[in-house]
Amino acid sequence: MRFSNYYIPTLKEDPKDAEIVSHKLMIRAGLIRKLGSGLYTYLPLGKRALRKVEEIVREEMDNAGALEFSFPLLVPVELWIDSGRWNPDKKELMRLKDRNDNIMVLSPTNEESFTDFFRKEFHSYKQLPVNFYQIGIKFRDEIRPRFGVMRAKEFLMKDAYSLDLDEESLDVSYKKMRDAYYNVFRRCMLDTISVKADSGDIGGDASEEFMVKSSVGEEEIVACECGYIANIETAESVLEQDDNKEYDLKTIEMIHTPNVKTIDDLVQFFDITAKKFIKSLVYKADNKSILVLIRGDYDINETKLKSKLGIHNLELADDETIFDISGSPAGFIGPYNLKKDIPIYADFSVKDIVNGITGANKKDFHYKNINPGRDFQAQYYDLRLVKKGDKCVHCGKQLDIFRGIEVGHIFKLGDKYSKAMGVKVLDKNGKEVTPLMGCYGIGITRTLAAIIEQHNDKDGIIWPITVAPFHVIITIVNTKNEELLKLAEKIENDLEKQGIEVLVDDRDLRPGFKFKDADLIGIPFRVNLSEKALNNNSFEIVRRKDKEIFYVSMDEIIDKLINLINIENKKER
Amino acid sequence: MRFSNYYIPTLKEDPKDAEIVSHKLMIRAGLIRKLGSGLYTYLPLGKRALRKVEEIVREEMDNAGALEFSFPLLVPVELWIDSGRWNPDKKELMRLKDRNDNIMVLSPTNEESFTDFFRKEFHSYKQLPVNFYQIGIKFRDEIRPRFGVMRAKEFLMKDAYSLDLDEESLDVSYKKMRDAYYNVFRRCMLDTISVKADSGDIGGDASEEFMVKSSVGEEEIVACECGYIANIETAESVLEQDDNKEYDLKTIEMIHTPNVKTIDDLVQFFDITAKKFIKSLVYKADNKSILVLIRGDYDINETKLKSKLGIHNLELADDETIFDISGSPAGFIGPYNLKKDIPIYADFSVKDIVNGITGANKKDFHYKNINPGRDFQAQYYDLRLVKKGDKCVHCGKQLDIFRGIEVGHIFKLGDKYSKAMGVKVLDKNGKEVTPLMGCYGIGITRTLAAIIEQHNDKDGIIWPITVAPFHVIITIVNTKNEELLKLAEKIENDLEKQGIEVLVDDRDLRPGFKFKDADLIGIPFRVNLSEKALNNNSFEIVRRKDKEIFYVSMDEIIDKLINLINIENKKER
Fold first, then answer.
1. CA-based nearest distance A139→chain B, Å
2. Least CB-packed of A84, A235, A368, B256 within 10 Å?
3. A106 close to B (CB below 8 A)
């Protein structure tokens, strides 16, 4: 392909709205352009790279026995009502009304369409197990689209859905996908780890995220030397006991605590460890008020709270609600002597507090000597947010926390959708049973961006050979020289016969400018064709990733390139 | 691929809502399933065939020098306002409001996004000509989705957009696409003709449709032996003169014509040729009333009317409007003595009428001796709908009319969008000029359906080799026989090494049932593996299209199949 016939509008300057490397480089290397907030156009070079990733995903899905098919992007809302996922207030969900005022959802994921497909088409254990996948556009009305294609309103996604007769079979299907995911990310040269995760709105029994370690990632991951790893939303750690535990339950006292509100203030005021305090928070949980308690040295993990209590919508209550429940302004609420009786949930850390301190439901007052069990009743769960330095529940070592980009997510849905939407099959004994589902997603556009996050230097992108839009760029140093043009054409033809994709930079521009462009767009190997090289019969092949230069004679160019590409491929497969 | 690992749910019965062959066969052969009105799921076999068509389109676009890229499916309404195409009453256009109440259009075509891209990125003649294409989902809120994927709410489309400096260059770009379209349809083995067409809502200077002749087509095509061919919406024919023309203009008379309303009634009542009558119709044209006249033996072509007068929304006026303008009920309106003055447009056929008859704007009365020019003024255009038997304007022979399916449409848009949206480039002299656009669409899903319309028999689909989801099906007659299973695997492997795609029917079902399924899903070649064939070393290869059977020994199977497939491929390329 001639550069002059192609369209790669490289830019010198970083775009103003780009915060992360992949976003900057995708714009600068002419891979994408912004059409609107969270909406990106893929230019030819970007589309070419994207299709490489797509093809790797397709091959690995095919290898794993999943069958490609495709659903409409529009989904009648009736299916969402059926599954119980329809919530008109859920703003991330794009939807429209058609000419007959029917509501159609623009798929963010396709569980409903699949479950409907399964219930219509699958009636016997003989048809199972099955796994179908599709590669297509998905929609999410992001409140704050950012980071380029990393968090956009439209994105290319692979989603797969399996149906199995029982747990054992689901385990096999799930493992096949898990293995396929490792293959995909390895082939994309992405350093990826799988992390136990919360299933969120999709739901189900268990889920794992595939994470690319990156300082710009939006997910927090908890990890231990021993191998324990989990998304912060589900991570657990050892509950540290209070070393100075008391045993005698004392009588409650009310203490005047003017202008003392935060835990730090209280620690200072009472001159006592934060482990003595019971933090009390009022939440609106699916429009019901609840009181949630945790020990003063911990924070509440709202994702755990939601998942453990089966809450869909959770938010902190407003001042008015707090006043209504407590009879006092925010900051002085506590579980004892509430004005209004509401359910109380507490983290395990609260259970063993003896003679604790908590708000007195009265402005500028706290209670001393509050004792769980004696002074209030609560239901106990693990609701703690893990902190860096917390101890691992498996080995006791200190936990580390780092950030990651979620590129894949696999779920054991179990019977969540199949039960809600009435999928039934006959088992071997002719008995009707509810089969189990799994679902498996890869963000293809996000994977592309993550590859760039992991493969770049100050000069631009460094494409792994497996997803490079072209394998080789031939830079003609002097485009006035006919001999060089002919040589470029010959090398291009010879390489293309070997399945190697070539871009010929035939633009009438300064060589330095062309070298810079080649580095920016990140083609793995560059061949420089200059008059000097021709005269000396010594041609430069430059490897992008380390700028190493290999000198070869004209006759050796092809073999050397094939050899270098094979080395890269071997490493990466 | 094993049939038992694949998913091809064939059906014996035609689906109740299917009216045309392709729709029936796509459901019965397990290619598609309906998710909702006008919304179809592609099952694995259908997806595979669709991808074959997609790949042919991609290759031909690449060969023609067009560059693949992709736009978001959502388009901010501002771009549609910019281009002048935004019309909130246009119900076919799907749109939604996002979380911030911004309107987003779901692309039916992408002229706006492209023009915006061009105006942002192209500033010099040096960057031209360019042609970009994408393959993706498009949306249309059909008032009456029908014929399966032929007229659906979502469909896969290839759309390309070119930008050229001048007419001459646009002609070249247009011709390249036209040639590429012929290649695409020839490779798909679709008997296709190109037809001059109206540019409709998309607009521009000239357009051609690619039509597949089919009795179930929704388009009418006018054709002549001499080679003249046009969509009925733009077709022209010779205006037949009235042989008994008068020359003396007589005085107007008002005639009582009770219960005489239609042209047939009038012909009978006045005992005179229909050529004497001036038919008068009131339309609402973009919310303005207009009177349109045509001679009694002709009908008005509303598409011509719209395009010649630049009307966007056209509909017949209601009775109330007619009464308001004419002072009489519908059926008695005429251009002379109207109660209200409205613009009058007439077909050329009206111009030479002498002493014509027309409604008297009074219930049960007509005027005699009405003369254009003397009694009313009108603007004249060709507004006639061509009828079968009309004479060709080129050779005078009688025109034929047949039906067709539109699979492609190419447009010279000229400066319609580039001007409206302010695309400007500098020419060689440094002068700012408005470059010209072309746009080029292929309905990929519709092409697939059209292929089935042209390639089927009573037993099912007959895939052309170029788009067949598999080239060969190996039917194992007795799946209990280990030797046959092994042989199937060997043949499959040997063929796949040659790039031939194989489906092995390993299902434990009656042979007759499996043969029927093979015919229904239309795989071009079937190899029957039976114990008898094994014993006699004489195997049957059945060619789907004519059921011809070729007998070969075990050693000859592969070579014979390769040979038969090559014959099909050669024919089709």
1. 9
2. B256
3. yes
Hey, is the C-beta of B63 within 8 angstroms of any chain A C-beta? no
**A144 near B CB under 8 A:** no
**Residue A150 carries which DSSP code?**
G
Per-residue pLDDT of B227-243, as tens digits, reads 888 888 888 999 988 87
Three-point CA angle B16, B20, B21, nearest 5°: 100
pLDDT at A571: 59
Confidence of residue B455 (pLDDT cuts 50, 70, 90): very high
Buried b (16+ CB within 10 A) or exposed e, B334-367: bbbbbeeebebbbbebbeebbbbbbbbbbebbbb
**How far is A479 from A529, CA to CA, in rounded Å?**
9
The answer for residues whose C-beta is within 8 angstroms of residue B216's C-beta and 6 or more apart is B19, B20, B21, B22, B147, B403, B405, B453
Q: Please give, rounded to a whole number of angstroms, the shortest distance from the CA of B288 to a CA of chain A.
A: 25
Residue B117 touches chain A, beta carbons under 8 Å: yes
Residues A439 and A160 sit within 8 Å (Cβ to Cβ): yes
pLDDT in tens, B30-68: 999 999 999 999 999 999 999 999 999 999 999 999 999
Instruction: Count residue pairs from A and B with Cβ separation < 8 A.
Output: 123
- The tens digit of pLDDT for each residue in A307-320 reads 889 888 899 999 99
Residues 80-99 of A with CB under 8 A from B: 91-92, 94-96, 98-99
Q: Report chain B residues whose CB lies below 8 A from the CB of A503.
A: none
Q: pTM for this structure?
A: 0.85
Domains and CATH numbers, chain B: 44-220+401-453 (3.30.930.10), 253-381 (3.90.960.10), 470-572 (3.40.50.800)
Of B42, B70, B94, which is closest to A69 when you measure between CB atoms? B42
Task: Using a pLDDT cut of 90, give the percent of chain A over it.
Answer: 79
Kindly provide the residue ranges of all beta strands, DSSP E only, lying in A202-287, ordered along the sequence. Answer: 206-213, 219-223, 229-231, 253-256, 278-285
Dihedral (CA of A30, A36, A37, A39) sign: negative
Confidence check: pLDDT of B370 > 70: yes
**A85 neighbors A212 (Cβ within 8 angstroms):** no
What are the tokens at A9?
């509008």
Q: Which of residues 391-420 of B touch A (CB under 8 A)?
A: none
Residues of A in contact with B73 (CB under 8 A): 73, 137, 154
CB-CB contact of A119 with A82 (8 Å)? no
Task: Report the Cα B57 to chain-centroid distance in Å.
Answer: 17
| CB contact B118 to A (< 8 Å) | no
Cα of A210 to nearest chain B Cα, Å: 26
**φ and ψ at B267, to 5 degrees?**
-55, -45
DSSP assignment string, A82-134: HHT---TT-TTS-EEE-TT--EEEE-SS-HHHHHHHHHHH--BGGG-SEEEEE
pLDDT at residue A93 tops 70: yes
Give the residue from A373, A363, A355, A191 showing the smallest Cα distance to A275. A355
Q: Is the CB of residue B144 less than 8 Å away from at least one CB of chain A?
A: no
CB–CB of B303/B233 below 8 Å?
yes
Reading the block at residue A198, the tokens are 């919360």
A137 in contact with B, Cβ within 8 Å: yes
Phi, psi (deg, nearest 5) at residue B40:
-125, 140
B68: which chain A residues are within 8 Å (Cβ-Cβ)?
44, 47-48
Confidence of residue B573 (pLDDT cuts 50, 70, 90): very low
Average pLDDT over residues A324-338: 91
pLDDT at A140 (0 to 100): 94
Residue A256 near residue A364 (C-beta atoms within 8 A): yes
Helices assigned H by DSSP within A203-277: 263-270
